[in-house]
Design a protein that fits this description.
Bound molecules: S-adenosylmethionine
Structural class: alpha/beta
Number of helices: 10
CATH class of the largest domain: Alpha Beta
CATH topology of the largest domain: Alpha/beta knot
Number of strands: 11
Helix content: 25-40%
Order of helices and strands: HHEHEHEHEEHEHEHEEEHEH
Distance between the termini: 51 Å
CATH architecture of the largest domain: 3-Layer(aba) Sandwich
Strand order of the largest sheet: 7-6-5-10-8-11-9
Oligomer: single chain
CATH superfamily of the largest domain: SPOUT methyltransferase, trefoil knot domain
Radius of gyration: 20 Å
């Protein structure tokens, strides 16, 4: 996998990969960028092959790079300067992969596949979204539902924050209306995470499968979404902060619910 590295930003493959920083381009192509050999290897382990692989000379003989390049539709060695431009970082990863986006619809989701699911309403911060996907993977959640107008889970920032869990966590995209009507058939508990709730998150009743619904960073959960829940729970705020960061609240609640469902 050695030879002359591509040095030109006008190379058509390099141009196509760079364009994936734009949401419009990601939507049209159905592709997204993944940085780092660790995340690319994670994808391969889960059966996803890269469409394109850009790599620097330092990675060219790495066994995991060779395995990824073999499965890629196109693999191209590029200079560090190109990697920096493509990733928009001074200190870029030595491997960048392009993969197909994968999401599921509500109609294909089987709630009984996992005791725990996570829903995010109108999440705006890609870092939060990525951190929630990573947490969902870590806690063994069945998947993450993106409800309403959310930021793009396939943006470079969101994917970076997942640390490879973008491939391990099923993603479901839905409008609020579709979610509200589909939710009526949910076989377990739907729990709203709300600052205004009176039930403590450690004391509330949860039945598997439990779907925890988290609100937007500024506005919290909408009234419509909150009304559709069986229970509303609050994590006590014991200092001066008036709320937790969305991803942190998701992590605390997800692990607590999982433990409660398992009788721990
Ligand atoms: C940054 S908070 C939103 C704060 C917003 N001002 C509000 O009134 O909800 C983002 C989301 O994290 C969850 N959250 C944050 N802190 C929480 C807490 N102490 N108890 C329950 N949920 C919390 C809620 O789902 C909330 O909608």
């Amino acid at each position: 996998m050695t030879g002359r590295a591509v040095t030109s930003l006008t190379n058509p493959t390099v141009k196509a990969v760079r364009a994936l920083h734009q949401r419009r381009e990601r939507r049209q192509s159905g592709l997204f960028l993944v940085e780092g050999l660790r995340s690319v290897s994670e994808a391969l382990e889960l059966g996803e092959a890269p469409k394109i692989l850009l790599y620097g000379e330092r990675a060219a003989t790495h066994p995991r790079l060779l395995a990824a390049a073999e499965r890629a539709d196109e693999a191209l060695m590029v200079t560090d300067a190109i990697l920096a431009k493509v990733s928009r970082r001074d200190n870029p990863q030595t491997v960048i992969g392009v993969f197909a986006q994968k999401t599921t619809s509500l109609s294909k989701l089987d709630p009984t596949l996992s005791p725990l699911w996570i829903g995010l309403e109108a999440v705006r911060d890609p870092g939060n979204l990525g951190a929630v996907l990573r947490t969902a993977d870590a806690v063994g959640a069945g998947g993450v539902m993106l409800i309403g107008e959310c930021c793009d889970p396939f943006s470079v920032e969101a994917v970076r924050a997942t640390m490879g869990s973008i491939f391990a966590t099923p993603l479901i995209e839905t409008s609020l209306d579709a979610f509200l009507s589909w939710r009526r058939a949910w076989p377990g508990t739907v729990a709203a995470a709300r600052l205004q709730a009176s039930d403590d998150y450690l004391a509330a009743p949860y039945q598997a499968p439990t779907l925890i619904l988290m609100g937007n960073e500024q506005a919290g959960l909408s009234e419509a979404a909150a009304k559709a829940c069986d229970v509303a729970v609050r994590i006590p705020m014991l200092g001066r902060a008036d709320s937790l960061n969305l991803a942190v609240a998701t992590g605390i609640l997800a692990y607590a619910v999982r433990a409660r469902l398992e009788g721990r």
